[in-house]
Amino acid sequence: MATWPGTTGQVVSSTMWNGLPAFTPNTQTGTTYTAVSADQYQVLVTMNNASANAFKIPTNASVSMPTGTVITVLNLGAGTCTISAVTSGTTTVVSAGAVSASPTLAQYKSAACIKTGTDTWVIVGAIS
Question: Which strands make up the sheet holding 99-100, listed edge to edge?
């Protein structure tokens, strides 16, 4: 997790590019990947597979991340990436307002997965 400047005058330079935080890539080439706690904040999870693939969000009981956690996903592959819960009855994935869904990412599209409650995630970005 990044540590932001705590006092006036401190500058973050080694982890910044053009004033934005630099991402550490977590490259995934398989057809299924389940998020881990190391994927939060300054990590960019790239899904890169020619076939349909899945980015899974685990239950809070299996991977406890604080509310407010953000995981960024970028689909580089030709296959559509579906974002969904590992256990849909326990973890709720919401997109397009208050609609529970499994949003998808086309090639070169990205989304932010934002944890808004113990087992609730809101997905925003270039989803369909």
Answer: 24-28, 43-47, 70-75, 109-117, 120-125, 92-95, 99-100
d(CA 23, CA 11): 17
Q: Which CATH class is domain 21-125?
A: mainly beta
CB 81 within 8 A of CB 56: no
User: pLDDT tens track of the chain, all 128 residues?
Assistant: 445 444 444 444 455 555 566 788 999 999 999 999 999 888 999 999 999 999 999 999 999 999 999 999 999 999 999 999 999 889 999 887 666 778 999 999 999 999 999 999 999 998 87
In degrees, rounded to 5, the angle at the alpha carbon of residue 3 between the alpha carbons of residues 123 and 71 is: 15
Q: What are phi and psi of 37, to 5 degrees?
A: -60, -25
Strands 81-85 and 104-105: antiparallel
| Contact (CB, 8 A) for 93 and 68 | no
Sign for the CA dihedral angle at 24, 25, 26, 32 comes to positive
